[in-house]
Design brief:
The complex is a heterodimer of chains A (about 110) and B (about 110).
Chain A (H helix, E strand, L loop, with lengths): L4 E3 L2 E5 L4 E6 L7 E6 L6 E6 L5 E4 L2 E5 L5 E6 L8 E8 L7 E3 L3 E6 L1
Parallel strand pairs in A: 2-11
Antiparallel strand pairs in A: 1-3, 3-8, 4-5, 4-9, 6-7, 7-8, 9-10, 9-11
Chain B lengths: L4 E3 L2 E4 L5 E6 L6 E7 L6 E7 L2 E5 L6 E5 L5 E5 L8 E8 L4 E3 L3 E5 L1
Parallel strand pairs in B: 2-11
Antiparallel strand pairs in B: 1-3, 3-8, 4-5, 4-9, 5-6, 7-8, 9-10, 9-11
Classes of the chains: A mainly beta (about 110), B mainly beta (about 110).
Chain lengths: ~110, ~110
C-alpha cells in the first residue's frame, strides 16, 4: 500500500499571506488528487493531476505534480478565511481504480 | 440534484453492539465506496460496491460488512463494536471516476 506523507501537519497564517503544502510518497503515483474537507463535511475534490511536471490552477490555488510523479504541492496565494480546512492528497490504487489512499492531511487555519 | 446523503448524522453505541449506516448515492451513480476517518487522520478505504457486489476491500476485519441495493443505495454494518471503531464514516459515490463524498456519520463507541 502506498504511503502518502503530508507536511506540514498544521498551518496557521494571517489572511493575505501565501502558503505551500506538500504531499510526498516513496513510490510513483499513477495520479494524484487534492481534496479540501471542512468541519462536519466530506472531502471535496479540488483537482486531479496525472502528468509529471503538470501545473494546474484553480483561482488562487496552484497545484504542481513532480516530474518523477512522487510528490505534489499546493500553493495558495493571498489566503482568505474561506480557505480554512483540512487539505488531503490521495492516490489511486492504479490508473482508473477508484480505491483511494489518503494522506493524513494538512489542517490550515487562516486568521482574519 | 441531491448529492450523496448519509444517515444518521450522529450515532452513539456501546462496545459489543452492532450498527448499520446508510448511504444514498448521487443520482445516476452506480458505485459506492465506504471510508473510515479517525480523528486527525485521512480517510481509510473500507470497501467498494458495484452492481450489488463487493468489488474491492481494504484492510478491515470481517466485522465490517456491507450491502448494495438495486437502487444503488448502500449500507455499512459493523458488528461487535470496539472503542477503536469510533470515527467519521464517509460514503462516496461515483460514475466513471470522480468521487463525491457525503457528510458522513459520526460514530461514537462508549
Amino acid at each position: 500500500t502506498q504511503l502518502l506523507e503530508q507536511s506540514p501537519q498544521f498551518l496557521s497564517i494571517q489572511e493575505g499571506e501565501n502558503l505551500t503544502v506538500y504531499c510526498n510518497s516513496s513510490s510513483v503515483f499513477s495520479s494524484l488528487q487534492w481534496y479540501r474537507q471542512e468541519p462536519g463535511e466530506g472531502p471535496v475534490l479540488l483537482v486531479t493531476v496525472v502528468t509529471g511536471g503538470e501545473v494546474k490552477k484553480l483561482k488562487r490555488l496552484t497545484f504542481q505534480f513532480g516530474d518523477a510523479r512522487k510528490d505534489s504541492s499546493l500553493h495558495i496565494t493571498a489566503a482568505q478565511p474561506g480557505d480554512t480546512g483540512l487539505y488531503l492528497c490521495a492516490s489511486e490504487a492504479g490508473f482508473g481504480n477508484e480505491k483511494l489512499t489518503f494522506g493524513t492531511g494538512t489542517r490550515l487555519t487562516i486568521i482574519p | 440534484d441531491a448529492g450523496v446523503t448519509q444517515s444518521p448524522t450522529h450515532l452513539i453505541k456501546t462496545r459489543g453492539q452492532q450498527v448499520t449506516l446508510r448511504c444514498s448515492p448521487k443520482s445516476g451513480h452506480d458505485t459506492v465506496s465506504w471510508y473510515q476517518q479517525a480523528l486527525g487522520q485521512g480517510p481509510q478505504f473500507i470497501f467498494q460496491y458495484y452492481e450489488e457486489e463487493e468489488r474491492q476491500r481494504g484492510n478491515f476485519p470481517d466485522r465490517f460488512s456491507g450491502h448494495q441495493f438495486p437502487n444503488y443505495s448502500s449500507e455499512l454494518n459493523v458488528n461487535a463494536l470496539l472503542l477503536g471503531d469510533s470515527a467519521l464514516y464517509l460514503c462516496a459515490s461515483s460514475l466513471g471516476g470522480k468521487l463525491f463524498f457525503g457528510s458522513g456519520t459520526q460514530l461514537s463507541v462508549l
